[in-house]
Amino acid sequence: MISPSILSADFSNLEKEFKIMDEENVDFIHLDIMDGNYVPNISFGPGIVKSLRSLTNITFDTHLMINNPENYIDEFAKAGSDIITIHSDATIHLNRTINLIKSKGLKAGLSLNPHQSVDILDYVVDDLDLVLVMSVNPGFGGQSFIESSYRKINEIRELIEKRNLNTLIEVDGGVKINNAKKILNSGADILVAGSAIFDGKDTRENIRKFKSLK
Ligand code: DX5
Ligand code: ZN
Questions:
Q1: For residue 4, what is the enclosing H or E element?
Q2: Less crowded by CB within 10 Å, the N or C end of the chain?
Q3: Which-ligand-closest: CA of 63?
Q4: Structural domains in the chain plus CATH codes
Q5: What is the pLDDT of residues 183-206, one digit of tens each?
Q6: For 143-162, how does the pLDDT look when each residue is reduced to its tens digit (9 = 90+)?
Q7: Could you tell me the distance, in angstroms and rounded to a whole number, from the CA of residue 9 to the centre of ligand 2?
């Protein structure tokens, strides 16, 4: 599955890019929300998500790189997010925040930064719909894939299988057409790709390349 991250898209032309994603049937659309606090960069908030909602019915895969995400779950739910993924070190009571997301009828994801071990999943994975493996340090598009992510994806796949769960594994950061296969073979279900899809050349062709893998 593919979840294009619009962070690298031309924001003056989003309508056009959304039309292409819609026509090409991408699985999710990845929305990177950054607060300039949890990560050094600022992107966009629920107001933009709400406007974009009118352009497509595709699942909005919302990645919150913000501190205290619990204070914004309701707003993103109302804006039209379908999946909300948070970072464990951005919220004090992780279990409570995961339950809050689910109480809004949304799917809940947890993101692991490159330095974080899979151990953190032990007491939460049963409640998660998705685990997002950050294969770069969060904050910017266009960074290089961190190699240790392959092993982490593998370990998460083993954990999910051992517990007989349907939790999806999503991988975010530095995903390109030339490493995508190896990432999928390591056990990933969904690839997030920003700069590889929105390279300013041919979005449609880039999506097709990802969709023809496997
Ligand atoms: C980074 C974001 C990513 C980013 C990926 O903090 O979470 O979703 O858009 O961009 P690429 O695919 O260019 O690494
Ligand atoms: Zn992301």
A1: strand 2-4
A2: C
A3: 2
A4: 2-211 (3.20.20.70)
A5: 999 999 999 999 999 998 999 999
A6: 999 999 999 999 999 999 99
A7: 13
